[in-house]
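Entry type: protein chain
Record version: 2
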Amino acid sequence: MTQKPEVDFIDGPAPTTLIISDVFVGDGAVAVAGGRVEVHYLGVDFENGEEFDSSWDRGESITFPLNGLIAGWQEGIPGMKVGGRRQLVIPPALAYGESGGHRLAGRTLVFIIDLLNVG
């Protein structure tokens, strides 16, 4: 199992579009749009670097269909290969909205995602 990543502070203004960066590329099966994925992930707030969620802290990965997730994940995970680690910087419009009832509404989010399996 991979180690929990650390997120380096990102200088500059929050992006208004999805930023996809491969930390390292895997060599396994490729995640497809609308498919099921098993991942470990870490989420932090772009502005203050505060961690808001981590599957590593819960001690278990999570499996789900991509089409049930925020748009930033639906667009940012397909094309990833099993064994890879990817960073997504997701503006509010592709996360939990510009405003509203969710505690992360209006926030730009940074996720580090390890793709463990597809299917």
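Comment: Strands lie at 19-24, 36-45, 51-54, 62-65, 85-90, 109-118.
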